[in-house]
Design brief:
Distance between the termini: 56 Å
Order of helices and strands: HEEEEHEHEEEEEHEEEHEHHEHHH
Number of strands: 15
Strand order of the largest sheet: 6-7-8-5-11-14-15
Length: about 375
């Protein structure tokens, strides 16, 4: 029997088919030769992925392991704000700096500043959110700045944003203040109005970033006494009272629509970091004089904000990665500044109970360094 003769057009179709199905894909979208991230140096055994469940690893399930080789930078890092410089402010213990997060089913590589900067060469990474995101930004800047020579780094300011520049890498690590993501404006009679469906005043700073990391949770649940607004507004409707979780869902949905419409998943990555836990019970003294992490929870609480956030992300077209740091951080009641959010003299330390205790933010070096090690692994 004569062998079938294959026409050139058929062979061409076979070639295209094979090229397509041997191409790489990533959890953040299809990879092309132009796409800025390559996977040749991936050190994460398995990574959470909405697109590939076989590579799934639950970073949230793990334990804190004492590692005397930590911290990864000196507590005298010049980019740390006073409120998180706990050693400078007189905190007598330092073991809180020496704990590394170890997931049960995979590993998170030790942060490598040169590798991070090389991967982010000619790129912008922007962290967007509240003062705890600023906390994380300071951590990330301190993790990388030690390998950047003096005179080849600087910080610039632009409205609600600030940026650390590693000049030789043409890399910027930026922070943009937007604790609610949507717009908070002054209205008639100087009343503060939270616009649940407006975002562009904040979002204009986010355009052009290659990596965007968001958080927004704490400001939505402040008590009425500490609330940052007097009224909610949606369209032309004004509300004095609204269930905080309904308002949060509306605000997040506005953010999600902006991401879906304005960010190209082939050129940028978007990560949403879950809420940082507070240990504010007992009038803010739950974290005072704590020295070691909790080993486990007697009962685990899932914040309402996290439930709402997951549902909003589920409805999005853009593949946003949820970086869930809530559970791991909830074990670290030892990591907060407490009374050491300000410089304290020897005499003041003898009467530390006379001062307010911060159980929301984190001492640096400290817990946010582990968030950034996870972030670096995800990238």
């Amino acid at each position: 029997m004569a062998k079938p003769a294959y026409k050139p057009q058929f062979l061409l179709l076979i070639g295209i088919f094979l090229c397509f199905f041997t191409g790489k894909s990533s959890q953040f979208g299809l990879e092309t030769d132009e796409f800025w991230l390559n996977e040749e140096d991936s050190e994460v055994n398995m990574v959470q992925s909405r697109r590939d469940s076989s590579r799934h690893c639950d970073f949230t399930s793990g334990k804190w392991v004492y590692d005397p080789s930590y911290p990864l930078y000196d507590s005298n890092c010049p980019y740390l704000s006073t409120a998180v410089s706990c050693q400078k402010n007189g905190r007598p213990d330092s073991d809180y700096q020496k704990w590394k997060w170890k997931p049960h089913a995979c590993s998170i590589p030790r942060f490598d500043a040169l590798k991070f900067l090389a991967k982010m060469r000619r790129k912008r990474i922007m962290l967007v959110g509240d003062s705890i995101m600023r906390n994380q930004w300071e951590s990330l800047v301190c993790l990388v700045q030690g390998v950047v020579p003096m005179g080849r780094k600087k910080v610039t300011y632009n409205g609600l944003s600030m940026a650390f520049h590693a000049l030789d890498f043409e890399t910027s690590i930026e922070f943009s203040w937007a604790p609610l993501l949507v717009e908070l404006k002054k209205g008639p009679e100087n009343k503060r109005i939270l616009h649940l469906d407006l975002i562009e005043d904040n979002a204009r700073y986010w355009r052009g970033a290659d990596v965007l990391v968001f958080d927004s949770a704490h400001w939505w649940t402040h008590s009425e006494q500490w609330s940052s607004w007097d009224y909610y507004m949606e369209g032309k409707s004004v509300y004095k009272v609204m269930n905080p979780m309904i308002a949060y869902e509306k605000g997040l949905t506005t953010w999600a629509k902006w991401i879906d419409l304005n960010i190209d998943p082939r050129r940028a990555r978007v990560i949403f970091r879950s809420m940082s836990p507070r240990h504010n019970r007992e009038n803010g003294w739950k974290c005072y004089k704590q020295r070691t992490p909790l080993a486990f929870f007697s009962h685990q609480h899932v914040p309402e904000q996290l439930v709402v956030l997951k549902e909003v992300l589920r409805r999005m077209r853009f593949p946003v990665y949820l970086q869930d740091i809530t559970t791991m951080s909830a074990l670290r009641r030892d990591g907060h500044p407490s009374v050491y959010r300000r410089a304290m003299g020897q005499e003041e330390r003898q009467h530390s109970k006379d001062f307010s205790s911060d159980c929301s933010h984190w001492c640096l070096p400290g817990v946010p360094d582990s968030w950034n090690e996870m972030l670096s692994a995800l990238l």
